[in-house]
TrEMBL record:
It comes from Citrus sinensis. It comes from the Eukaryota. This is Aspartate-semialdehyde dehydrogenase.
Length: 350
């Protein structure tokens, strides 16, 4: 599905901008662009006024970070955004107006009608017709990291037996809250081990040696925003408003990579052996399911990896026949859950 082109200056290649380049995901954008030999004619490093003037090295060349302004997108073909929802809402439409195709990593446009919400292995058809060189700009949304990791594993099974209900519990790493949260977890771990009170700036409570409900705001229905993102985004990506989804999202003291326990209920029967075979052949998925040695996916094993790992594949004994499965999924939130997914979308624009 994805074409790799040897990295080099190419006159016909797109001009790329990375918005929020100094953040955790912005830095990962650069790493993924380099790893995948993404072709570009020029690349702009954009960030807030505070970061403007910083020097960044990319592909053995020094770049100066520029302040993000309304004039930043002149001549830009593809703009990769990871600078938060308010920045995306302000500058995304400006970039589109200038003719850029924006791949946005925030939640700003995900549920907007006519904005494709895309996981390339899952629903590439949602962005059909959008290509560099079509003469006009467009917006494409990157789904929430938890949704991406979940649906990478659930979709191949959904295609075979149709998921009617999905129950998800997530165990989410510090990386999901950015570089500052990762630093705070490291600091707190040291403080607690030294008998000092933990510094709680990013999160309102101790994170080290603890876990708590995801820090997203809690809504009137008792779900938090992260949980409702999984519900709504799954329906949009699968183009199925009737699929029933419920989620409980938890922060765990893991540095990087999310884990998810997923219970699936199917319309048609699907046994665990068939499911395992389907997942072994699914793009972007690796199966780690060794019952004999009790070896299954862990966040550490998938950190800095592109593939989503799936294991604990077993029949749901609470359901009759083969109409239910439990699976355990781990994926790197910063890579497939954010930067890699966006770059894969960009590859499909070429």
């Amino acid at each position: 599905m994805f074409t790799r082109v040897r990295m080099s200056y190419q006159e016909s290649a797109p001009c790329v901008a990375v918005v929020g380049v100094t953040g955790a995901v912005g830095q990962e954008f650069l790493s993924v662009l380099s790893d995948r030999d993404f072709p570009y004619r020029s690349i702009k490093m954009l960030a807030s006024k505070r970061s403007a003037g910083k020097q960044l090295s990319f592909q053995d060349k020094a770049y100066t970070v520029e302040e993000l302004t309304e004039d930043s997108f002149d001549g830009v073909d593809i703009a990769l955004f990871s600078a938060g929802g308010s920045i995306s809402k302000k500058f995304g439409p400006i970039a589109v107006e200038k003719g850029s195709i924006v791949v946005d990593n925030s939640s700003a446009f995900r549920m907007v009608e006519n904005v494709p919400l895309v996981i390339p292995e899952v629903n590439p058809e949602a962005m059909s017709g959008i290509k560099v060189g079509m003469g006009k700009g467009a917006l494409i949304a990157n789904p929430n990291c938890s949704t991406i990791i979940c649906l990478m594993a659930a979709t191949p099974l959904h295609r075979r037996a149709k998921v009617t209900r999905m129950v998800v519990s997530t165990y989410q790493a510090a990386s999901g809250a950015g570089a500052a949260a990762m630093e705070e977890l490291e600091l707190q771990t040291r403080e607690v081990l030294e008998g000092k009170p933990p510094t709680c700036k990013i999160f309102s409570q101790q994170y080290a040696f603890n876990l708590f409900s995801h820090n997203a705001p809690v809504l009137e229905n008792g779900y938090n925003e992260e949980e409702m993102k999984m519900v709504k985004e799954t329906r949009k990506i699968w183009n199925d408003k009737d699929v029933r989804v419920t989620a409980t999202c938890i922060r765990v003291p893991v540095m990087r990579a999310h884990a998810e326990s997923v219970n699936l209920q199917f319309e048609k029967p699907l046994d665990e052996d068939t499911a395992r075979d389907i997942l072994k052949n699914a793009p972007g998925v690796v199966v780690i399911d060794d019952r004999a040695s009790n070896h299954f996916p862990t966040p550490l094993e998938v950190s800095n990896k592109d593939d989503v790992a799936v294991g604990r594949i077993r029949r749901d004994v609470s359901q009759d026949g083969n109409h239910g499965l439990d699976i355990f999924v781990c994926g790197d939130q910063v890579r497939k859950g954010a930067a890699l997914n966006a770059v894969q979308i960009a590859e499909m624009l070429l």
